[in-house]
Amino acid sequence: MQAGFLQKRDGRIILVKRQLRKGRCFMANKRAKLSDIAREAGVSLTAASFYINGKAKQYKLSPATCERLEAAVRKYDYVPNLFARAMQQNRTFLIGLLVRDRINSSFWSDIIAGIENGIAASGCHLVLAGSHVDAAGELDAIRQMRAKGVDGYVVSPVIGGDGGFPNLSELQELAAFRPVVGLNAELPGIPSVYNDDVIGGRLVAECFRRHGHRRVALLGSGGYFALPRFRAFEAFFAERGIAPLRLSTPAEALERCSEFSAVFCGNDYLAAALCSNAASAGIRIPERFSVIGYDGLDWLKLLSPRPGTVVQHKGELGEAIAAQLLRAFDCGSCESVRFVPQLEIGDTVGPA
């Protein structure tokens, strides 16, 4: 079925045709309103609003009522007017999500999916940015998000060489005006949802010790040695008079593999690269040395041997962040949530 309207283009009057979808009712010259949906479904404007805003279960709308409302939405091809809603509630329904490195990592994609799942019914949407482990870049991204008028912030902060947060005071000031939730880092004075990195580092250290390893190493680049996971690992062995060797690349690790019998990698990418390079060089793992990574990325299961890893609760963490931020929007406050990581030994841990 086709319909059309006249439009002036380049001095000519032409007929612009539109294809109408079967079963849909397009209202002439105006956009369908919430009142049209309520009238069509035979319910109050309030009930229609509850349904459109994803609160049908909260306000106990019956299944029959929801079915009538859904039929009305489909009939009129109804799309909520977010601009009017935002002006009425003095909100933008935007949430700023800032991660400390690149967004395209599969680690962050799982967390982002969890957050999106958690905010799906709220009408909110994410504005994403990565600071690329740069404190100045982090502040710039926050300024850009403030300019967009986001309602709240989820921040995975840059970590300094001393293990602190260079922009902590700025984040605390920001939290005085808008809800801020720390992502996978315990930010002083700011509610945070995080995996306990200290426990994660100790799990790896205790595993190596149980297998008799005393010549241990850390593999990481940039700021990894400031992360709590590495600091906890080093502290565990320091208590036993052992100073772990520090390595910066998989290539360096292979060159110096005679100096250690077990290596803790800062993430799963480094662990996978080290295992792959070792296989190419004819070095067998764990016969030559043991390897454990960090994060628990799904694709590790496809590798052989499968690297050991510390599993972080990524999807659950994202959903918990969404829940705390939405709580802050509704109640004005939220709280910290701590997840405890788990160790999976995989196929790359053996005796010293």
Automatic annotation (TrEMBL):
CDD domains: HTH_LacI (cd01392), PBP1_LacI_sugar_binding-like (cd06267). Keywords: DNA-binding, Transcription, Transcription regulation. One of its GO terms (molecular function) is transcription cis-regulatory region binding. The keyword Cell membrane does not apply. Residues 32-89 form the HTH lacI-type domain. The keyword rRNA-binding does not apply. Gene3D superfamilies: 3.40.50.2300, lambda repressor-like DNA-binding domains (1.10.260.40). It comes from the Bacteria. Signal peptide: none annotated. SUPFAM superfamilies: lambda repressor-like DNA-binding domains, Periplasmic binding protein-like I. PANTHER family: LACI-RELATED TRANSCRIPTIONAL REPRESSOR (PTHR30146), TRANSCRIPTION REGULATOR, MEMBER OF GALR FAMILY (PTHR30146:SF154). This is LacI family transcriptional regulator. It comes from Victivallis lenta. The lineage of its organism: Bacteria, Pseudomonadati, Lentisphaerota, Lentisphaeria, Victivallales.
